[in-house]
Amino acid sequence: MRTQVGIVGAGPAGLLLSHLLALRGIDSVVVEIRSRAYCEARQRAGILEHGSVRLLRDAGLAGRLDRQGLEHGGIYLQFDGERHHVDFRALTGRTVTVYAQTEVVKDLIAERITRGGHIEFEVTDTEVDRLDTDQPVLRYTDASGTRHEVVCDAIAGCDGFHGICRPRIPAELLKVTERGYPYAWLGILADVPPSTDELIYSHHKNGFALHSLRSPTVSRLYLQVDPDESIDNWSDQRIWDELQRRFELPGSVWRLEVGPVLDKSITPMRSFVATPMRYGRMFLAGDAAHIVPPTGAKGLNLAIADVAVLAPALDWLLRGKLELADAYTATCMDRVWRATHFSWWMTTMLHRTPGADDMEAALQQSQLRYVSSSRAAATSLAENYTGYPELRYKKD
Ligand code: RFL
Ligand code: PHB
């Protein structure tokens, strides 16, 4: 088989790349170990930056996003028993949109399939090879057990943090900068209307909690737990009781509405940046190259931003012009490090470190008070949260 770009992974990065390439008349084959149903149901991100929404709209992908996405003009920061609004619209003129990653993935798969795109689900034994030649190959076994070899002009490793592409970069060339956190998030999806008009990021002595949403009838909530915590220790009742505690506003009538839990899981948190994002004719994008803790709502947006840079770079490469491909890592890294810093900053401002002394909570509260009272500090949060630098997708 022959294609121009072999893409490993049908997450947001791989699917959007395949679509952006198709808009430029470039063929690709996407291979994915999971089933279509699994990819479409995997609960993850929920927030699209202003620039991500605009890119999806410019790429003709925003039909449902424009109808069902919920535009949010700010967030609440809750600490010391009070809730403070950070008004993104007033501070930056920009907003974010609540639209689940599951929906972005469904829209992308539907669009690719309608336009005759080639996505192979449920593959096994994916391999990428001959990466330092101008004819790299992608090998996989399809769902029926047939082995394929696809000769490509370039390969995109969009296979997430645990994928097979990043390890193909020789160890002596790869630089990894990494930090683990003594926190994890227990996330639930609940069949209950959100109890809030904006997301609530709550600092609490028992640990961080986040109230997000998926639609006017479905809520998404998170609790900070220990990284070695087992989900079996958390009955639905225990989860709701703890959420109730961490969002409580003394002296207020506000209450958290409770409902059936549709999904629950625990996710560890880390910051991870690998460079270069390119080896020969293989290019990494999204979680394959970098991970941020979810507190800044940046992972999905970074995946989108990477492929917005990669699509034109590959287009040029296929026409014998190497400048954008050569600049790919450096172009992405500016945004990646800004998002890595912002996510680390939000995380350390809001989570309780097990065994920490009183100094940690006092410093966090002082920082939270500053961010909620100083226009300059609030503007910095708002600018980063809504997307900095603002994503601008150039068609050429
Ligand atoms: P993905 O989505 O992990 O997709 C990689 C795909 O590659 C497949 N794969 C393979 N396919 C073939 N052969 C192999 N050998 C393969 N190995 C792996 C996998 O099955 C998968 O389908 O990476 P991508 O495309 O880079 O997208 C990144 C985002 O998924 C991720 O950054 C975000 O979900 C992070 N994130 C958030 N990001 C935001 O921008 N805003 C948020 O609000 C936000 N909240 C979150 C999050 C992530 C979370 N979790 C669960 C990690 C909240 C949570 C709880
Ligand atoms: C989500 O809705 O899943 C979500 C929202 C904001 C975050 C992280 C996750 O910071």
Task: Explain how this protein is built.
The protein is of the alpha+beta class. Helices cover 35% and strands 28% of the residues. It is built from eleven helices and 20 strands. It has helices at 12-23, 36-41, 50-58, 63-68, 88-92, 101-114, 236-247, 299-318, 323-350, 358-373, 375-386; strands at 5-8, 28-31, 47-49, 70-72, 74-79, 82-87, 96-98, 118-120, 124-129, 137-141, 147-151, 154-157, 175-190, 199-202, 209-215, 218-225, 261-275, 278-279, 282-284, 290-291. It has an eight-stranded mixed beta sheet with strand order 6-5-14-15-16-13-17-20. A six-stranded mixed beta sheet has the order 8-2-1-12-19-18. The chain has a three-stranded antiparallel beta sheet with strand order 3-7-4. The model has no long low-confidence stretch (mean pLDDT 97). The structure holds 8-demethyl-8-dimethylamino-flavin-adenine-dinucleotide and P-hydroxybenzoic acid (PHB). P-hydroxybenzoic acid (PHB) is lined by residues 45-47, 199, 210, 212, 220, 294-295, 297.
Describe the structure concisely for a colleague:
The chain has an eight-stranded mixed beta sheet with strand order 6-5-14-15-16-13-17-20. The protein has helices at 12-23, 36-41, 50-58, 63-68, 88-92, 101-114, 236-247, 299-318, 323-350, 358-373, 375-386, and strands spanning 5-8, 28-31, 47-49, 70-72, 74-79, 82-87, 96-98, 118-120, 124-129, 137-141, 147-151, 154-157, 175-190, 199-202, 209-215, 218-225, 261-275, 278-279, 282-284, 290-291.
